[in-house]
Amino acid sequence: MGGVDPDAGGHRAVIAVDLVRLSGLVNVDEISGEAVLQAGTRAPEAERLLAEHGFELGHYPQSFRFATIGGFAAARSSGQNSAGYGRFDAMVTGLRAATPTGDLDLGRAPGSAAGPDLLRLLLGSEGAFGVITEVRVRVHRTPAQRIVESWSFPDFQTGVDALREVVQRGGAPTVIRLSDEAETGVSLAQIGRIGKALAKGASALTVFEGEDAQERRARTARLLAGAGGSSSGRRAAEDWMRTRFDGPYLRDALLGAGVFCETLETATTWSNLLRLRAAVTTALREGFAAAGAKSFVMCHVSHVYPTGASLYFTVLAGLRGDQLSAWEVVKRGAGDAIMDAGGTITHHHAIGRDHAPWLREEIGDTGIRILHAVKRELDPQGIMNPGVLIPPEGDDD
């Protein structure tokens, strides 16, 4: 989202802060189920260090191989296991940050009524207020068992209703995802079934971890089957587990071969989900058509909540010429469609610079003034990641 693109912000130079040496496990509280990690710790290293103590964080976004603990916090990351373990911001129980006007050490207890929660103010701040240096997180014992299963549904709407039943009635999977008809066909083709008859409809996958995995799998299976789903075995889910971090590199390969490929995501309530999907799909198709390109739009439900879910779109297009300029126009149309249809401008990709034009519409004028006030207090010279999250005051009208 342009969150790390260099911008001098009116200053004479740009300094990039690399926290690679601020890395490591500070401590593990096995009784409380908490661990303190330095912010520059990459996710695979964090899991390795925790595993030595019999624990894991269990946060696995597609960026897992190179992302850091501080990055997870700064961008309010959401991982593929969020149905079971929650988003990263829900895992954070404390953090330390260095700001130009002073240090912060937040998160004294697992629950508190001591005024507004300043810890939450730093989560999602994207480096605009200071540098997160240390994060305390909730961890759990390394799962003793993992069970995966794939499902098929007659159509996307039936699958959406089934996922809602699971999350609202307590099926408790660690991972649950639903691909629409277009993405289902592409996914099946990718695992060696090109040229063969592909199953129609939408597909889902479930993953269960822990000692009670079998019990939770059985409960979820009853709910999915009762809502119109059919089990299709383990193969597709196992293939997804094996390749789940490869998506971004496939995109780069397609771009290199001249096929435009990009993603965007949003979230809304269950009652508004299908309307939002239709609006964004239409905006993407019409945007590329106006650019003289045919497009192929895919969508999946990537994260679920009792009251709603996220939608993750992938679009392929035969763009010629300046792909970036064409995408900027299409992206603006898709962003406007998201806001008009009642979605959030970002569920887990964060604001950066790319989504900043829609932040005022999402949080209102008063919300923008609050963020500017925090920026002025913590970063009066405007040196922390200029232009990210909120534009400099006076430049956002």
Query: Helical proportion?
Result: 25-40%
Question: What's the total number of strands?
Answer: 14
Percent range for β-strand residues:
15-25%
Structural class: alpha+beta
- Termini gap: 21 Å
Report the total helices: 13
Taking all Cα atoms into account, the compactness measure Rg is 22 Å
Mean pLDDT: 91
Unreliable runs, pLDDT <50, ≥5 residues?
Answer: 191-198
Shape: globular
* Main β-sheet description: 7 strands, antiparallel
Helix-strand layout with pairing:
Blueprint: E1 25-29, E2 34-38, H1 43-51, E3 55-56, H2 69-74, H3 82-85, H4 88-91, E4 92-99, E5 102-106, H5 118-122, E6 131-138, E7 140-141, E8 146-153, H6 156-169, E9 175-179, H7 181-193, E10 202-209, H8 213-226, E11 230-231, H9 235-243, H10 247-256, E12 260-269, H11 273-290, E13 295-304, E14 308-317, H12 323-340, H13 359-378
Antiparallel strand pairs: 1-2, 2-6, 3-7, 4-5, 4-6, 8-10, 8-11, 9-10, 9-13, 12-14, 13-14
Helix pairs in contact: 6-8, 11-12
What does this structure look like?
The chain has helices spanning 43-51, 69-74, 82-85, 88-91, 118-122, 156-169, 181-193, 213-226, 235-243, 247-256, 273-290, 323-340, 359-378, and strands at residues 25-29, 34-38, 55-56, 92-99, 102-106, 131-138, 140-141, 146-153, 175-179, 202-209, 230-231, 260-269, 295-304, 308-317. It is an alpha+beta fold and 397 residues long. Helix 6 (156-169) crosses helix 8 and helix 11 packs antiparallel against helix 12. The strands form three sheets. It has a seven-stranded antiparallel sheet, sandwiched between helices. Strands 1-2-6-4-5 form a five-stranded antiparallel sheet. Strands 3-7 form a two-stranded antiparallel sheet. The protein is built from 13 helices and 14 strands. It is globular, with a radius of gyration of 22 Å.
